[in-house]
Amino acid sequence: MGAIHGEELNKSGKMGGREEKILVLVRLRPLSEKELSNNEVADWECINESTVLYRNSLQERSGLPTAYSYDRVFSGDCSTNQVYEEGTKEIALSVVSGINLMIFLSSRLAVCSNLPSLFFSSASVFAYGQTSSGKTYTMRGITEYTVADIYDYIQRHEERAFVLKFSAMEIYNENVRDLLSSDITSLRILDDPEKGTIVEKLTEETVTDWDHLKKLMSICEGKISVNDTTAQRKIGETSLNEQSSRSHQILKLTIESSAREFLGKENSSTLSASVFFVDLAGSERASQAMSAGTRLKEGCHINRSLLTLGNVIRKLSKGRQGHINYRDSKLTRILQPCLGGNARTTIICTLSPARSHVEQSRNTLLFATCAKEVTTNAQVNVVMSDKALVKHLQKELARLESELKSPAPISSSCNCSATIRKKDLQIEKMEKKIRELTKQRDLAQSRVEDLLQLIGNDQSPNKQEGRKHPGKWKARDKWGDDWSSMNGHYMNGVQDGEEDDSIEDPLSQALYHEEESMFDMGDPDDQCKDVRCIEMEETRVDERFKSHASPAGENGQILASTTFANGSLRRSSHQNGFLYGTLEERIQDVQRSIDSLASHYPDNSASQDDAADASSSRSLNFSRRRVCRANLVNGSFFPPGKEEFSERTPPSEAENEFTERPGAFRRFSLLDYNVNSANLSRNGSHSSRGTDFIEDLKSQSSKNIADEEITSVQTFVAGLKDAKLQYEKQFGEGQVPEDLRKTLKDVGLDAILGTSDGPLDWMLQFEKLQRAIIELWETCNVSLVHRTYFFLLFNGDPTDSIYLEVELRRLTFLRDTFSHGNHDIEGGHTQTLASSEKALKKERETLSRLMKKRFSDEERKKLYQRWDIRLDSKRRRQRLVSKLWTVTEDKDHVLESASIVAKLVKFSEQGRALKGMFGLSFSAPSMRRRSYGWMSSNKE
Ligand SMILES: Nc1ncnc2c1ncn2[C@@H]1O[C@H](COP(=O)(O)OP(=O)(O)OP(=O)(O)O)[C@@H](O)[C@H]1O
Questions:
Q1: Which one, of 687, 722, 701, lies nearest residue 829 by Cα?
Q2: Read out DSSP for 155-184?
Q3: Residue where a domain stops, chosen among 392, 426, 461
Q4: End-to-end alpha-carbon separation of the chain, Å?
Q5: How many CA atoms are closer than 13 Å to the CA of 298, on its beta-carbon side?
Q6: What average pLDDT does range 891-920 have in this prediction?
Q7: Do 338 and 452 sit in the same domain of this protein?
Q8: What's the confidence (pLDDT) of residue 695?
Q9: Cα distance between residue 559 and residue 550, in whole Å
Q10: Predicted pLDDT at 74
């Protein structure tokens, strides 16, 4: 027999890799003795072969999904053998018996030797679920049944010679260990250009027989020790499981085979395929597992890597768009081929039916729902009989010969040259257009310079103060200077001083000391809570944004350091009919801004190793999780309380797969509220619709800190853009809602309503609006990250006015809500000034932890000096962060605060991607007219 790899066949148009969804099975275990003695009730039931149902009259009324469907579900009375036979067998054995063999040929391949057999080069079986749900119990059985069947297959196929190799590893506290070696040193993961990701120096035992393999598996389980030294896989007792696996275990069985008759001959080829058995450690809540010390630390590592796995699965379920963070944990890195790679994969999600575990069970099912959507592209090895192979090659030869004999018709080559000519013409035209545009741009540029000079002469204070605005407030064109001057300050030499890493939360402290780059994990309970549900929350949020995203190609206006004057002047140029605002120019403008931001604030963190970054992003993910329960009022990303968790668990596929929460679009009704129900804000009753808007806007913006990827700024922008669109819808163009007039009066901006429409007036108005907003941010304890993004993104372009309006209205609403003692904004979410204060405090703590990561020692020292913090004082980072954004009347202070927070949340890095955000344009074409609309309407 000869072997052909799927890829080769693919080229010839016959066969190739096979795309298929991950097979997802759910296994419910019976109530354990302990659960029975605690009078636990079983709330879950398999109602048919594919649906598991939650039966609890109380929860049913909560509106959460009750039925979940998967490829196959197994009830508590199903044996592991049944799970294997009806669930995993087909995939696990496809590495030897091949899919066609299984389905069409059964064991008659030897008889029907002309038919090819497809062998998949890699298969994997995972067990996923909360601690004590039965993963190890299930995987042990599945592994044994698979291996037994593989041996059975080998015995029945004597025409081939098989070699089996076995390796085993565990990932314990983010260290990879060889389970077949007594050496407990952590192994390195390497990227091999040919083999992909490999674990260096991992023992690979050649298996002599079935007994040998069983012995090797026993070593992994710790039943036998290697060289009588260490017990193997880390197992420990928790209150939920006496024999809890504290590590992820990955077993790999490689099966190599060659046709016996060709053995030792030139044309002999060896076929290799592997099957992975993955027993993941279980997610656990610290409170339930009652873990402390080592167990708690293990639990944190377990949860963190499972979080990354959840993230990867979630992203893959959305169709592999964008970057998949496989490198965020060793688990996902090693399992990359099994997750959306070239393996056939089955995931068995195990559940405890106990009521006390309902939340964890739901999270497991949400993970399963996501996993169902993931597609892998399994590589196919094809083995043919010699006869079939010869036939295949003859056919291929004949096809190539006929292609050679009848070359492509002349007409098609004519078409080719015609197409080339057409393209040449197009290129010529485009070059001409570029030349024209460049001319126009240069012309506009010189006009702008003229106008700038004019304004410089008009605005003597600006001119005299080197473009400073009157008072403490500086113009935006000072940004670059301020950034560099601040940077300069950091670079001045200072004495060394020990820094205190003390963190109030003991768990965070433990973790922080454990892994320096890691930061806030929140309270143990929160942190150890399973997180998949949150990933689903994110999915929904993403979906919402998707549905609101503007068509790509609109011009953007997110110029972080675009000069104030520029913004105004651009409008003038526009009015004069110049094509000043062409896309090309805008891109250059943005690029310049970003470059200036990036260059003034070198990002030291970029040099830090992958692991640090990964761990940080993982940690940040915990914060992200909290966004679901974010404090609605202050925009912080910290949760008001965990009780909201289950309420906000999204619907499963059984209901609406990842659909948005019903009424998600009602969030804009804050605007309705202000227009149509103005009395509500006065009588103090709550408006959940209005809160929806605040909640979403807030959580969108606050989400950014928890996500170091570009999307976080995009999300922020999308939220604002969304709000703006709704706002415009509500009021139309050129309308000033009555209550906004009142708001403006309230904040002392009533003069603006009657002012003229010139760029200079706008500059003054912008200053006033911005200052009012900054004060309100402080009053309402708004998230520092939100303040920073907003402050940096809206820097005085007239087209920003609508965003300032929306923000001002939102903040005024919050302030009024607080002052009326109107706490209960949305059912279940009690919001008070105190809770917003608490959330802000937590955000400051988190930012203070980031200080160490984002600023070098030297920079921090300079910062302390600059902010009057003694270098020998304790908790210096916390002190510094607690000062940020507090002196609202001092523009320098605000500017520096924004710079520091921007650096902490990697704004400059994200800023580099702002170009990509043109699709989320701040300034829709109509905005140019709209921007002054509300002011002009007041003049009428
Ligand atoms: N389907 C089942 N039928 C009967 N008993 C089961 C079943 N599944 C699990 N058990 C029992 O439940 C207990 C916990 O199972 P197991 O250790 O496999 O859980 P786990 O999910 O691997 O937990 P951890 O993540 O903590 O390692 C064990 O005593 C096991 O024998």
A1: 687
A2: HH-TTEEEEEEEEEEEEETTEEEETTSS--
A3: 392
A4: 89
A5: 24
A6: 67
A7: no
A8: 43
A9: 18
A10: 96
329 and 477 fall within a common domain: no
Pair of tokens at residue 297: 């630390």
Q: What distance in angstroms lies between residue 243's CA and the mean position of ligand 1's atoms?
A: 9
Annotated binding residue 577:
no
641 appears as a binding residue in the annotation: no
Residues 326 and 236 in one domain: yes
From the CA atom positions of the chain, what is the Rg in Å? 32
> Is 131 marked as a binding-site residue?
yes
Do residue 456 and residue 588 come from a single domain?
yes
Domain total of the chain: 2
**Cα of 352 from ligand 1 centre, angstroms:** 9
Q: What is the pTM of this model?
A: 0.46
Residue 682 lies in a domain: yes
Mutate to test the pocket of ligand 1, among 132, 278, 361 (most ligand atoms within 8 A of CB): 132
Range among 156-165, 420-429, 506-515 with highest mean pLDDT value = 156-165
416: tokens are: 């080719």
For the chain, what percent of residues have pLDDT higher than 90?
16
- Please check whether residues 375 and 485 belong to one and the same domain: no
pLDDT band at 601 (very low <50, low <70, confident <90, very high): very low
Q: What are phi and psi of 408, to 5 degrees?
A: -55, 140
- Ligand 1: centre distance to CA 350 (Å): 9
Whose C-alpha lies nearest to ligand 1, atom 13? 132
Q: Which parts of 760-883 are beta strand (E)?
A: 824-826, 829-830
- Ligand 1 proximity of 282 Cβ (cutoff 6 Å): yes
Q: Is 130 annotated as a binding residue?
A: yes
CATH number for the domain spanning 229: value is 3.40.850.10
The encoded tokens of residue 339 equal 């997750």
Domain boundary, last residue among 361, 392, 423: 392
Tell which atom from ligand 1 comes closest to the C-alpha of 133.
Answer: 21
585 vs 158, higher pLDDT: 158
Q: Is residue 65 part of a domain?
A: yes
CB 865 within 8 Å of CB 494 = yes
Angle at 156 between CA 151 and CA 158, to 5 degrees: 100
| C-alpha 229 to ligand 1 mean position (Å) | 27
Say if residue 724 carries a ligand binding annotation: no
- Give the nearest ligand 1 atom to 246 CA: 27
Count of CB atoms within 10 A of residue 322's CB? 11
- pLDDT at residue number 916: 37
Nearest Cα residue to 371 out of 433, 418, 309:
309
Hey, which of 25, 77, 83, 136 would you mutate to test ligand 1's pocket, going by the most ligand atoms within 8 Å of its Cβ? 136
Q: Among 137, 235, 367, 530, which residue has the most ligand 1 atoms within 8 Å of its CB, making it the best to mutate?
A: 137
Same domain, 327 and 457: no
Residue 406 lies in a domain: no
Q: What angle do CA 611, 614, 615 make, to 5 degrees?
A: 85
Side-chain half-sphere exposure of 1, counting CA atoms within 13 A = 26
- Asked whether residue 844 is domain-assigned, the answer is yes
Q: So what's the pLDDT on residue 265?
A: 67
- Measured in degrees and rounded to the nearest 5, phi and psi for residue 348 equal -105, 115
Q: Is the pLDDT of residue 226 over 60?
A: no
Of 326, 302, 911, 281, nearest to 610 by C-alpha is 326
Q: Tell me the per-residue pLDDT of 89-145, one tens digit each, with 9 for 90 and over.
A: 988 888 886 433 332 222 223 333 333 445 567 889 999 999 889 999 999 999 999
Q: Which domain holds residue 284?
A: 2-392
State yes or no: pLDDT of 782 exceeds 50. yes
Hey, whose CA ends up nearest to atom 15 of ligand 1? 134
Q: Are 530 and 386 found together in one domain?
A: no
453 labelled as ligand-binding?
no
Q: What is the pLDDT of residue 448?
A: 66
Average pLDDT for the chain: 65
503 lines ligand 1 (CB under 6 A): no
Pocket of ligand 1 contains residue 285 by CB under 6 Å? no
Strands 205-207, 72-74: pairing kind: unpaired
Give the pair of three-digit tokens for residue 846: 């988190």
Whether 375 and 454 share a structural domain: no
